[in-house]
Amino acid sequence: MSWMIGGGLLLPAGLAGQGISVAAKVGTTGIGADVIVALAPKLALKGGVGFTLIDAQLDFDCDDAGGDCTTYDVEPPPIFLTGSLDIRLAGPVRVMAGLLYRSDDTRFSGDLDGPSEIGDVIFAGPGRIEGALTTPEIAPFLGVGFGRLGGEGFSIYLDLGLAYAGDAGVEMSGSGPIASEPGFDAELDKERRRILDEIDSYYRFWPIVNLGFRIPL
Fold first, then answer.
1. Counting Cβ atoms within 10 Å, is residue 31 exposed (0-12), middle (13-18) or buried (19+)?
2. Into how many domains does the chain fold?
3. Is residue 33 part of a domain?
4. 194: enclosing H helix or E strand
5. What is the pLDDT of residue 138?
6. Is residue 99 part of a domain?
7. Residue of 25, 6, 26 whose CA lies nearest to 14
8. DSSP code per residue over 37-96
9. Domain span holding position 88
10. What pLDDT does 9 receive?
11. Does 7 fall in a domain?
C-alpha cells in the first residue's frame, strides 16, 4: 500500500486522494468531532462521535394529595456515534441518511427525603428511585444539511435530522425504607406507566441538530 502526507498526517494514498476533512461539532449529540471523506463533488461519507457533558433535572406532575413531587436527576447517554451518507443537491444544501448509536439509556434517579407521592399514594419515605428510559441502541435517521463537506478551505456546516429510535420503555426500581412500605411496588408500577404515557409519543424520536467547523487535511 502506498502512503502520502496530508495535513501533517500519514494517510493511505487512496484515502488522501478522496479529500478528507475533520471537524469539531456541538449539538444534540454532544460535543465531539466528525471525520468526512468526500467521495465525489456531491457525495460524502461522514462519521462522528459526541460526548454529552450536561445533566438535567425533571419534575413530574403531582396530584394535590399533599406529598412532595419527586425531582429526578437525568443523565442522557454519555456517548453518541453517527455515520451518514451526504448528497449535495444544490449550492450548500444536502440531504443525508445514516445511523445513530447511543452507548447507554437515558437514566434518572431521585432521592425521597420525606413524604413523597408515588403513583396515587403518599409514602413516608425515605428512599431512592432509579430508572431508565429505554429504546434500541441503534436508530436510523434522515436529515438535511447546509454547508460544504469537501473542497479547499475551512467551512461551517449545519445538520438537521430526526432519528427514529423505535418503541420507548421505562424501567424503575426503589430502594431504602420506602420500598418496604405496603403497596409501594404497585404504585411504583403505576408511576412507571404514567411516565411512559408522557414520553412515548416523542421519546422514540431523537432530534439531530449539530453545528460543525470543518478543516481539510
1. middle
2. 1
3. yes
4. helix 184-199
5. 95
6. yes
7. 6
8. EEEETTEEEEEEEEE----EEEE----SSSPBPPEEEEE--SEEEEEEEEEEEETTEEEE
9. 17-216
10. 39
11. no
**Residue 41 belongs to a domain:** yes
Radius of gyration of the chain (CA): 23
Q: Give the CATH number for residue 168.
A: 2.40.160.170
Identity of the amino acid at 154 = F
Give percent above pLDDT 70 in the chain.
Answer: 87
**pLDDT tens column, 124-165:** 878 999 999 998 999 999 999 999 998 888 999 999 999 998
Counts for the chain of helices (H) and strands (E), in that order: 2, 17
7 sits in the region (left: phi over 0; alpha: psi -120 to 50; else beta) called left
Percent of the chain beyond pLDDT 90? 54
Please give the C-alpha separations between residue 209 and each of 22, 25, 105, 192, in angstroms, as whole numbers.
Answer: 18, 10, 20, 29
pLDDT digits (tens, 9 = 90+) for 10-56: 444 444 446 899 999 999 999 999 999 999 989 999 999 999 988 77
Q: Are 138 and 166 in contact (CB under 8 A)?
A: no
**What type of residue is 193?**
R
Residue 195 is predicted with a pLDDT of: 85
Coil/strand/helix, residue 126: coil
User: Are 101 and 82 spatial neighbours (Cβ–Cβ below 8 Å)?
Assistant: yes
Residues whose CB is less than 8 angstroms from the CB of residue 132 and which lie 6 or more positions away in sequence, other chains included: 105, 106, 107, 108, 170, 171
